[in-house]
Design a protein that fits this description.
By secondary structure, this protein is α+β, with helices and mostly antiparallel strands. The chain contains 25 helices and 36 strands. Helices cover 32% and strands 22% of the residues. Helix 6 crosses helix 14 and helix 23 packs antiparallel against helix 25.
Length: 965
């Protein structure tokens, strides 16, 4: 390596964690630095656009659509320091090595780095799909140039997303409500969710009955089900039309739908008779394992098994990749390298034995989604030898996801599972019953991994449904006959897992976009979660209706899938970037003219309204302050309207619920009583943000009634006066903490009921009766360790701080591991392993953090509180010395903290500094050149909502580039 690359080498990667891992494999001649992701992007606000472009018609797009779709690239404020540091490091180097990810995003980052840094030394592009010593050493011998086809494909995607979002979104602002957004992929995903909700609204419930028997032979119980009576098949749920609730027309003649009377009549006619075995069939069944994970299937399984969102799954996977534990996590190829197959087969033979190893390795290269990149590999454990999950070090979340990937990879290279399937038919009078069973003869790959379940052994038991040995013609004893009512069910709402699966099947989106799509449609208020289900808001229904009617082409599934395929063609060099952008945006059939035409055709009043099936007497609308429902006054014909609570989903709306919302708004709620202390009326109401109780009237200039949310599980109808007054007494003091001498209080906040003492909070479990919460129970809750919302178990616990009297823990956070002591959070230097931190080191880091933190502004009552809560710094320093002395006596040298990361206070939203670079192209290439001095300070209005346009690509959310009026 040294012969090819003499002197100092600067290696640039995207993240600090990745840099830290790669440093371990390189020598002193390598400087490894992180660029922290993308270093340039299109303007985020109109304030960012350079003065010389602001008068151009296309300026608000950030793309010169009149001259070759040239983008304006800017260095965001938070990246100027990073770019400066990289330039300083480059000045020390003899070679620049770009080691960003091997996908389009990574290729684009490398190209932008070259454009910004303008290196005068040789530039090498280095790619690898896993961060192991072998992979890094091999990559250092196989350099290549930046792939401009990949760069152009990423740039085309970014520009396309900008053009679609920034062209259609303003139409939504004018016709529906300001601040709404449209996106190339986002709007299609929302359409899927909204259309599923419409299917649920159109669904007609149907009732049907069945007859079943509890049978037994040789003390082996089994169940049978009536399948045929007098030559007609007994109807099940799938035989009914979802929109009419009636039997499907093509099946009505040959199918018998049982009602209660018919079911009981059949049951009575065969009561007391034995079943005769009329047919027995036994056959072997072999099941193949699922292929290794690709990005979409990993997100689906993490959602099903771990309950994670797509975004959470990808964040954890990113950490695993950067720490060298798995291969690259954004891939749509199911292919496994020879190295991976050999490692898996060796592990299988060692752990499970030869019987679980197929003679030939399994190949999944052909099983891929459209547009898959075979140069990539499936997601699998990294290296030539896989780390066993029991030996892996990491956070709880990282261990769980790694185990999932490890098991799936193992199973993909194991033998089939072998089953024996037994089915039987029984006759009794005019009735035919059926029973089926399945036994696992050999578990095969199921020994390692069962799709959709966490416990393989438990799942094997569930699948092992045994039937006794049956012979044709023999009589079977009936223990009990029963009839039962069933109802057909509407189509299930999407989950993140099923929506990602559907998008993938349609060819919409790519590995790098799925997590962003899921996050975007929720962050922007189009979809919310109810349990694990994705439920559209009324805004989503209205926007989908408008886009489907006036911009049908741009939310069409085939058209969007075609866009993805064209971007793939640009990446492979088969399609010219500028030609395609011109076809989509410009010309008589382009997006620009279409949007201008439809802007004139759309009636704003009609566009804000949607009719729901079965609720024709109501109109549902979206306005400036959210969704509301209206009905006509029977006497005057005037609209009677009221806001719809945010928690109300369109699919669950009924006439009763709509009338109740409007009646409460018009008539006001009847008071449930009066407060004996103030004499004010007490109300139990429902509002946009859910149910609540209120003390006093809400009308009048000085009206400021006290309100308190009604906890989950209760409704305004079930609240009586005593409970309402009890809720309105929040926060209430339950008693004094015996040690701290502070009051323990109870309250209800954004995340539900809680108890608090001296700023330390604990959530009240849902299993507790809120109205029975007393001091004893509250004290028990306060005595328990604080769990936090979704926080993983501590990496390490070091004991109590000698002065602050707070527990010292090492936790894993969003930006890496850190030390927590009460309200003090101290960073851990990158060269330190969190599990190796000693108490003395932790105390030193805590003291350094406290010393560097800016003093809080003085308050009149602050002095006394501070004195009781925080020990003097001198005392803390003394405690550090004592702890360090202890370390010395035990033979361990204390480590002096250095390079501590101290977070600066957040910048105000009102100002932004942006370094500006503009680009021009020559002969199809894009070359960076200075655009003059960038504005030193650019004001950004915080009053207007952000334009959330564009698709769900891995880019920051954007803001509307419109001038304030």
């Amino acid at each position: 390596m040294s012969k090819e690359l003499p002197g100092k080498k600067l290696v640039i990667v995207e993240s600090p964690t990745k840099a830290k891992t790669i440093r371990k494999f390189l020598g002193r001649d390598y400087i490894v630095e992180s660029c922290m992701g993308h270093v340039r992007d299109l303007p985020q606000t109109s304030k960012d656009i350079p003065e010389k472009f602001k008068k151009e018609k296309w300026a608000q797009l950030g793309v010169n659509v009149d001259d070759g779709f040239q983008p304006i690239y800017l260095v965001p404020k938070n990246k100027t320091k990073v770019v400066t540091q990289l330039k300083d490091k480059l000045a020390e180097a003899d070679v620049l090595i770009l080691a960003t990810d091997e996908d389009r995003e990574g290729e684009s980052i490398s190209w932008h780095l070259v454009s910004l840094l303008k290196p005068k030394v040789p530039v090498k592009r280095m790619v690898f799909h896993e961060i192991t010593k072998e992979a890094i050493e091999e990559a250092l011998t196989e350099f290549r140039d930046i792939d401009m086809n990949l760069v152009r494909a990423q740039e085309a995607r970014r520009i396309l997303d900008r053009l679609v979002g920034y062209t259609i979104s303003p139409v939504l602002w004018k016709k529906v409500a300001y601040g709404l957004s449209a996106g190339r992929v986002q709007s299609v995903a929302v359409r899927l969710v909204a259309e599923r909700e419409m299917e649920r609204l159109k669904f007609k419930k149907a009732e049907y009955w069945d007859v079943s028997g509890q049978n037994e032979k040789e003390k082996v119980p089994f169940q049978t089900r009536l399948i045929n009576y007098q030559g007609k098949k007994i109807a099940t749920g799938k035989d009914f039309d979802a929109q009419t609730g009636q039997l499907l027309k093509d099946k009505a003649k040959d199918i018998l739908a049982l009602n209660e009377d018919a079911a009981k009549k059949i049951l009575n006619s065969i009561q007391g008779q034995d079943f005769t075995v009329s047919e027995v069939e036994e056959k072997p069944v072999s099941r193949k394992p699922a292929p290794p994970f690709i990005t979409s299937t990993l997100q689906q399984e993490a959602n099903r098994k771990l309950g994670w969102t797509s975004r959470e799954a990808m964040q954890v996977a990113q950490k695993l990749y950067e720490n060298g534990l798995i291969t690259y996590m954004r891939t749509d190829s199911t292919n496994l390298s020879e190295q991976a197959i050999n490692a898996a087969r060796k592990e299988i033979q060692s752990l499970y034995g030869k019987d679980y190893l197929p003679e030939q390795p399994r190949s999944y290269a052909g099983k891929k989604v459209k547009g898959a990149q075979e140069a990539h590999e499936a997601i699998r454990p990294a290296g030539t030898t896989f780390v066993h999950p029991d030996e892996m070090k990491g956070t709880t979340a990282e261990v769980k996801l790694y185990e999932l990937i490890w098991k799936r990879t193992m199973a993909s290279q194991m033998v089939n599972s072998e089953h024996k399937q037994l089915s039987a038919r029984f006759t009794v009078g005019d009735a035919t019953f059926a029973a089926s069973g399945m036994t696992v003869e050999f578990p095969g790959f199921l020994k390692a991994y069962v799709e959709g379940s966490d416990d393989p052994d438990a799942t094997l038991e569930e699948k092992d449904i045994k039937l006794p040995k049956l012979t044709k013609g023999e009589k079977i004893k009936v223990i009990k006959l029963t009839s039962e009512s069933h109802e057909t069910k509407p189509p299930a709402r999407f989950t993140e897992a099923s929506l990602v699966q559907t998008l993938e099947k349609m060819g919409i989106g790519r590995p790098s976009t799925y997590a962003s799509i899921m996050g975007t449609i929720q962050d922007r208020g189009y979809v919310r979660k109810g349990g694990n289900a994705l439920m559209p808001t009324f805004t989503a229904m209205v926007v989908t209706q408008l886009l489907s009617q006036y911009f049908a082409k741009y939310v069409d599934y085939e058209f969007t899938s075609g866009m993805e395929n064209t971007l793939d063609e640009i990446a492979s060099g088969e399609m010219e970037q500028l030609k395609y952008l011109g076809e989509v945006y410009s010309g008589d059939e382009g997006l620009k003219k279409h949007a201008e035409k439809q802007d004139k055709n759309i009636d704003p009043e009609m566009s804000r309204e949607i009719a729901l099936p079965g609720l024709s007497e109501f109109s549902f609308r979206v306005g400036r302050y959210g969704a509301y429902v209206c009905r006509k006054d029977p006497k005057t014909g005037a609209d009677q309207c009221a806001s719809i609570p945010d928690a109300q989903s369109p699919g669950d709306m009924t006439a009763e619920a709509a009338n109740q919302i409007i009646d409460q708004k018009l008539n006001g709620a009847d008071a449930i009583g009066k407060d004996p202390v103030t004499g004010l009326a007490v109300y139990a109401l429902s509002g946009r943000y859910g149910p609540y109780v209120q003390l006093g009237e809400s009308e009048g200039e000085d009206a400021k009634p006290k309100r308190m949310a009604i906890p989950a599980g209760m409704s305004p109808e079930t609240i009586d006066l005593d409970r309402a007054l009890w809720l309105l007494s929040m926060p209430r003091t339950l008693g004094q903490h015996p040690t701290l001498g502070k009051d323990i209080k109870m309250g209800i906040g954004r995340f539900g009921p809680y108890v608090v003492c001296d700023g330390d909070f604990r959530s009240i479990p849902k299993t507790e009766n809120l109205f029975e919460m007393d001091f004893k129970k509250a004290f028990e809750l306060m005595s328990q360790p604080k769990k936090g919302r979704g926080r993983a178990a501590p990496i390490k616990e070091l004991g109590q701080h000698p002065q602050l009297k707070e527990e010292i823990q090492i936790l894993s956070g969003k930006y890496g591991p850190y030390i927590k002591c009460g309200k003090v959070n101290a960073s851990i230097p990158q060269d330190k392993k969190p599990e190796d931190i000693t108490l003395a080191e932790a105390l030193a880091f805590i003291e350094a953090k406290m010393s560097s933190s800016p003093a809080a502004p003085e308050k009149k009552t602050a002095a006394k509180k501070t004195a009781s809560k925080v020990a003097p710094k001198a005392a803390v320093k003394a405690s550090v010395k004592v702890a360090q002395a202890g370390s010395k006596s035990s033979g361990k040298a204390p480590t002096k903290p250095s390079g501590l990361a101290v977070k600066a206070p957040p910048a105000k939203a009102s100002t932004t500094k942006t370094s500006v670079k503009t680009v021009t192209r020559t002969a199809g290439q894009t070359v960076a050149k200075p655009a003059g001095k960038a504005p030193s300070s650019v004001a950004v209005s915080s009053k207007k909502p952000a334009l959330k346009g564009g698709s769900a690509s891995a880019q920051p959310a954007t803001k509307p580039m419109t001038r304030s009026k």
